[in-house]
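Onboarding guide, step 5: your first structure request.
Type a short instruction followed by the sequence, for example:

Predict the 3D structure of this protein.
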Amino acid sequence: MIKKSFFGLLKPRLEYDIIDAKTPAPREITASKTIQLFSHTVFDKKDKILFQVGDKVKAGQKISIMKGSDDYIISSVSGTIASISPYAGNFGMQMTSVVIKKDDRQESDTQFAEAAKTPSFQVTTDFLAHLPGAFPVSILSQTDPKVTKLVISGMDTDLLVQTRQQIVKTSASSIKKGIRILKDITNLDTFIIVVPEALSQDAISTGATVKTVPPAYPSASPHLVLKDILGKELPAGDPFEKHGIAVVSAEALAALGNAYEKKEIPTRKILTVIDKIGTKKLISAQIGTPFKDIFSALNIRPEDGDRIIIGGPMTGLSAYTEDHPVCPDTDAVIIQDRSVIPYVSNSACINCGECIRICPAKVQVSMLVRFLEAGQYDNAADNYDLFSCIECGLCSYVCTAKIPIFQYIRLAKFELARIQSAEAENV
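The system replies with structure tokens like these:
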């Protein structure tokens, strides 16, 4: 739902889509021939690769790709490794792609089942870093300072999406089990679950402290949850973990609970699929399933010029191919008809002030974007509050000149992080 004043003197009001009792259960979709998995290890020399093309793997098997790297992937199917190759992700991020051809007969790996008999943080780190919902293992392992407070996101953070709400509605008992596991194996002592008012009763049964967010976007943004609901406003650019706080999706916590209860690694991801006419469908797909298999199962036919968006309409990123797979953090996929794709211009800012009025972080966006367009990222960060941005996308939504402000902001943050990482390695 969108409400906007005729003269533009008031902020447009966008509201989340709240799940209801009539929402059907997710439809299960299975990858047809292959899956594709991404390792954050940079593809290096071939003599460092631990697995080879032609090697057999089992469903739920841990696959460590490179010598000297702790990163790994979890195969969601039994099959044969068809390719291992370098892959450039968003903003050119270098990763390693592993394609696995499915076997007709599926067989599960048992290594985790043995380890899960004695739950520990080491077992969680060794096997569960790629759970559906993207469980933040590396953050919870931090010791300086210790992370003691966990905020469970049971409200989807973008419009049209209902993935996390579905988990709270149907898997509260699994979330409760995940909380119990974390109490035993980590330093966490405070658990807060954030949900819309309609799911507050479901959330109570998780055992976490329940906080509700209003339906107006972007109230479910983690930064606004901390500020408006928990009364904690972090300094610009500070990660949550620096203040002893971690944020996790409800799906990741439910997957953790299921993993230890069933002694097997969950490999199915719930996601919201939105077709060309805006119809929403919840589906369950194996991690690594190509989008084209999902579209085929739902009778969605992408055509030349259509746009595939990973995520919601405000903060999602475009995918250039239907072969792109479902990842652990894929909460939604949108297929947008070419006839309704809004154009993006290279026009100059007209100083209308809409972006400043709507910004929940009170950033001087019209000044910030000038430095971002010029590639002056340090100036943007030092003088115009780049790191105060909570990445809600509202500035791009209201921009009269159709400047892709949100994309400029994301690129700037990525480039500054990349430079900082490179400098740290050279010290």
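Each response can be followed by summary notes, for example: The first strand starts at residue 2 and ends at 3.
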